[in-house]
Amino acid sequence: MNLREKIDGYFEGYHVQKKIAYLLLKYGLKINNDDKIYCGPIEQSSSKLARAISVDYRAVTDTVKKIKKEPELKAFFSSIEPTPNLKNAAQKVGWGVIEIIPENPHLPGIFKGVAKIIADEGISIRQAIGEDYDLTENPRFIIVTEAAIPDKLISKIRQVDGIKGITIY
User: Which of 27, 88, 136, 158 is most buried, by the most CB atoms less than 10 A from its CB?
Assistant: First the structure.
């Protein structure tokens, strides 16, 4: 059973709580032993999270309580960490960005193929993020490089097995 199925199962019949659980997951917000929500070491307000997705703050506290009662959810949500996605900021500091649309996100080796092409050009990868294919409807792979990707690499990258399309920023 994948993570989406597990979360959906735990929150079956509780649409708002499920929405909140996915918000926590999307932003890497963790539930600590004190029943509070954290982004790294920074405590987050239940009422502000509720406003962000237009729900009552009590739904957020009820979601936290439900997560704490389920050992598997508690273990998971107490362990996740936020990770910055540099995609939108990369160009501001002269880095390159490649967004990859996979034909089949389950296919292994897509990152490896693209990384090899980039490395062979002598460009370092600063960040690589693969959106979870169980949690995202149309997952993308994002690669942020220390320099812009030269045009001559685009056709090579498109030839990597499993790539449906790419966008270079």
Answer: 27
Complete domains list, the chain, with CATH: 3-77 (no CATH), 90-168 (3.30.70.260)
* Regions in the chain scoring below 70 on pLDDT: none
pTM for the model: 0.83
CB 37 within 8 A of CB 29: yes
Q: What is the 3-state secondary structure (H, E, C) of 67-134?
A: HHHCHHHHHHHCCCCCCCCCCCCHHHHCCEEEEEEECCCCCCCHHHHHHHHHHHCCCCEEEEEECCCC
Structure tokens at 40: 């790294």
CA distance 65 to 167: 41
Alpha carbons 97 and 144: distance in angstroms, whole number: 5
Token reading at 7: 């979360």
**DSSP secondary-structure letter at 81?**
-
